[in-house]
């Protein structure tokens, strides 16, 4: 799917920093759409592909966790994002202003 391709590009760092910010915003906006829908599925699929990079983006994780329906939509992914945020904050990770 398009979401999978999009996520893989982010995961493997195949986009520049400016393009990365735009890509992450697209995924965040897709996740904010009311489920069920194609955009929500796109966002979840993309996020699943690059979730291993989330610990480097604590502010982005925070934005994801603020989405009301996210926990009900993807409970395991919700916990994963929570853990990424927690580990980033406890390790002194700086909040990035370039995403979100």
Automatic annotation (TrEMBL):
Pfam families: CNOT1_TTP_bind. Residues 2-88 form the CCR4-NOT transcription complex subunit 1 TTP binding domain. Transmembrane segments: none annotated. GO terms for biological process: negative regulation of translation; nuclear-transcribed mRNA catabolic process, deadenylation-dependent decay. InterPro entries: CNOT1_TTP_bind, CNOT1_TTP_bind_sf, Not1. One of its GO terms (cellular component) is P-body. One of its GO terms (molecular function) is molecular adaptor activity. It comes from the Eukaryota. This is CCR4-NOT transcription complex subunit 1 TTP binding domain-containing protein. It comes from Timspurckia oligopyrenoides. The lineage of its organism: Eukaryota, Rhodophyta, Bangiophyceae, Porphyridiales, Porphyridiaceae.
